[in-house]
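COMPLEX REQUEST
Ligand: magnesium ion
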Amino acid sequence: MDYTSLKKELRTRLDRERKALSKEAIQDLSQQVFEKWRARFTLKPVAYLHLFQPIQKRNEIDTSFISDYARKRHGHVKIVVPVVNPSSEHLTHVELANDIEMEINHWGIPEPKLPFKKVFPMQMDMVLVPMLGFDLDGNRLGYGKGYYDRFLSLVHPQCLKIGLCLEQGKIESGLPAEPHDVALDYIVTEELVYRISGNNKAP
Ligand code: ADP
Ligand code: MG
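STATUS: Structure written out below.
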């Protein structure tokens, strides 16, 4: 089977399995992912933390544990969220000010309303990446539009690229990586922080 069909088949299976989990389970698992992330990484040197706003109908990991913690304990951190531009197939990155108004877009993703302050990919110190699946080489399976591959190809080489995923999305072998796929440095699940070999970035 070719790469495109294999990725498609994996996406369908992992998406279906994750959607079958209860909202309560997703909340518990999201909190456990947050705790693993907090125990391993520090926000002290981070000026810009990029994180995704979860698509609830897809049971994505709830990142509000992380943003609440960053706001409460690391007030210097600027939280940045993506806004989807379907015409260019690129993400715009926007500072999440406390008073900013949010709306749910066409894909169910909460996004800040205009006007907003843009941040460039090169400015990010840490990016938390949503995903459907991953393998132990740091390859990532997204929703199939390549938005994060385009974004991550533009961040600073020292930026920490951290995937957040449930163990349910772990693929032991056979996740196809294509030349445009950007590998992650770490993947955090409810059970473990996987450090991808070849990555010499200290957390
Ligand atoms: P995902 O990463 O969302 O799982 P894929 O890796 O399969 O999806 O990529 C989806 C599409 O996005 C591919 O057709 C690929 O050609 C395109 N794409 C990904 N990264 C880039 C890039 N840096 N420049 C141009 N097109 C890209
Ligand atoms: Mg990809």
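REMARKS: The chain has four helices and eleven strands. The mean pLDDT is 93.
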